[in-house]
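From the shared-data thread, chain only:
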Amino acid sequence: MSKAIISIKGTQIIDEEPNVIEFITDGIYTCNEAGKRITYFETELTGEKGVKNVINVQDDTIIITKNGPYKTQLILENGKRHHCPYNTPFGMMTMGINTQEINDGLTKQGGNLFVSYELEINHNTASVNKLEITVKESKKDAQKNNKSDRSC
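Structure, as tokens:
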């Protein structure tokens, strides 16, 4: 487990109009034989300050769990569609998540993760979403780790 600097760029496209949110935050990054895990807290910029996000990456699957007043879990599996319950202040609804692309460039020292997916509500595409995450070890932890072993 290493302290990390996490850069996140989320793009949501609705009716061909992109809405982009970018932010940088501190977090924790773990990479081992079980997979990769990115943990961070939301900021005021996202409107969910204090909500804990955990992103687990294993093979061609990403599971994003939001732990806050409205716990939610999204399952993104390359080339597959999943139904995920989504809790909101107005109640729970089920969303279809159709993953188009996952590009996992994460190594022991960090790296990049990209996912593109369609979000469906009532079997209609509500938005196309792209999530780009860059993980860099904090300088203190980077000095402690052996750079020769990059695999998890």
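The chain has one domain: 2-139.
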